[in-house]
């Protein structure tokens, strides 16, 4: 049983920010030298990739229920269910 649904955009964004943090940590520890603007580039590119991943995931998930909804026609009409039925 899944606890929550998979969100690839958030995963990519988190990895991008984590990559920027590792880059700065390596620079602070003296392991390598990183230009000051590099974290902005890493985070910006990561956010663009995250947006692309989220959009792709949205398009895939949006298309899947539309196929199953068009084949099922067993539910009650909207006018006979809910608060409108009491009027």
From TrEMBL:
This is Uncharacterized protein. It comes from the Bacteria. The lineage of its organism: Bacteria, Bacillati, Actinomycetota, Actinomycetes, Kitasatosporales.
């Amino acid at each position: 049983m899944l606890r929550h649904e998979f969100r690839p955009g958030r995963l990519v964004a988190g990895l991008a920010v984590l990559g920027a943090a590792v880059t700065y940590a390596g620079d602070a520890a003296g392991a390598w030298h990183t230009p000051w603007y590099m974290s902005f580039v890493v985070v910006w590119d990561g956010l663009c990739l995250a947006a692309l991943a989220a959009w792709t995931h949205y398009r895939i998930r949006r298309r899947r229920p539309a196929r199953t909804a068009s084949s099922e026609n067993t539910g009650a009409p909207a006018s006979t269910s809910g608060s409108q039925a009491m009027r």
